[in-house]
Amino acid sequence: MHCNRLIIQLFLAFHSLSAIAQTPADKTAPYPNRPIRLILPFPPGAATDAIARVMAPKLAEAMGQQWVVENRGGAAGNIATEYVAKQPADGYTVLFGFSTVLTVNTSLYAAAGFDPIKDFAPVTQLATSQYKLIVHPSVPARSVKEFVALAKAQPGSLNYASAGAGSPLHLAAELFKSRAGVNMVHVAYKGGGPAATAVLAGESQLVFSGVANSMDHIKSGRLRALAVTSLKRAQVAPELPTLHESGYPGFNVTTWNSLLVPANTSSAIIARLHGETVKILRNQEVATMISRAGYETTGSSPDELSEMIRSESRVWAKVIKDANIRAE
Questions:
Q1: Contact of 227 with 147, CB cutoff 8 Å
Q2: Is the pTM of the predicted complex or chain greater than 0.70?
Q3: What CATH code would you report for 130-246?
Q4: CATH number at 32-129+254-322
């Protein structure tokens, strides 16, 4: 009898503890009260990965909870982005959003698996970079104006390299072709590195490349940079004019990353994430570390990030349609 009574008491005690564990106490505790996952749309090793691993420990320190970086590469970033879109809107799964994934992929792929406007709540832009317009030194042009004049005088005779159909380098070149009114031939390579190598070898005459790339070859004269693609000059190459100031006002092609959470995340959680992130981005040590990846820290309001996604999506949708670009 005593044994049975003890078993019943243990049974009741166990269920009491289970009930306590299942109460909504965690939901009402201050955010965050458990680790936060930061989901990256690309494999380890990219600049995005470096920036995420600078930010994660700083955010963990500021918010009192671990930030766990998870790389979910594949399908040009669609897999990770769709995954986050379907997670609970509780602030514990955050997307490390990449510019082209958010502004290009829904126009480039028939079924990207997400809507960047409807499925996400923006938090802030993190950092931005730009591209350089690079030519082989055999091209007799030392300015954008001279290059455009050459291309117009010899339509279809100049090749431009890209990292593949629909890649950022391809889209930047197509936008430039449209704005400048020139006819160049697209040659797709398997990645930005091979594309730059092709121009270095003289196989192609032009490439749009990351602003921090090929600096040694440019300094040695094996490549020539004519301009950068942002509205402002680049910190790493302030001597280069922008396309905006080279006769193409408003030309602005940048690569950027950001933080977003699933739609319907509470405004209080978004405000906490935004406030802590922007504070970290203002730290000079953080800015210096991120600059090593070729990016400049920015920060933005959620509304500014939302408008950036909308406006750039419109630009790239038109470029993709006009140039009849199809994903490889």
A1: no
A2: yes
A3: 3.40.190.10
A4: 3.40.190.150
Phi, psi of 123 (to 5 degrees): -110, -65
Instruction: Outline which parts of the chain fall under CATH 3.40.190.10.
Output: 130-246
Residues 228 and 237: beta-carbon distance below 8 Å: yes
Distance CA 127, CA 232 (A): 14
Judge contact between 166 and 104, C-beta under 8 A: yes
Beta-carbon count within 10 A of 246 CB: 20
Give tens-digit pLDDT for 267-308.
999 999 999 999 999 999 999 999 988 899 999 999 999 999
Question: Does residue 183 have a pLDDT over 90?
Answer: yes
Q: Give CATH 3.40.190.150 domain extents, the chain.
A: 32-129+254-322
Which uninterrupted H or E stretch holds 63? helix 47-63
Q: Which residues pair with 224 in a beta bridge?
A: 135
Query: What's residue 235's pLDDT?
Result: 87
3-state secondary structure of 176: helix
Which has the closest alpha carbon to 258: 88, 77, 112, 90?
Answer: 77
Q: Give dist(CA 246, CA 231) in Å, integer.
A: 11
Average pLDDT on 311-317 reads 97
For residue 82, the one-letter residue type is E
| Residues 6+ away with beta carbon under 8 Å from 214 | 132, 134, 196, 200, 223, 225
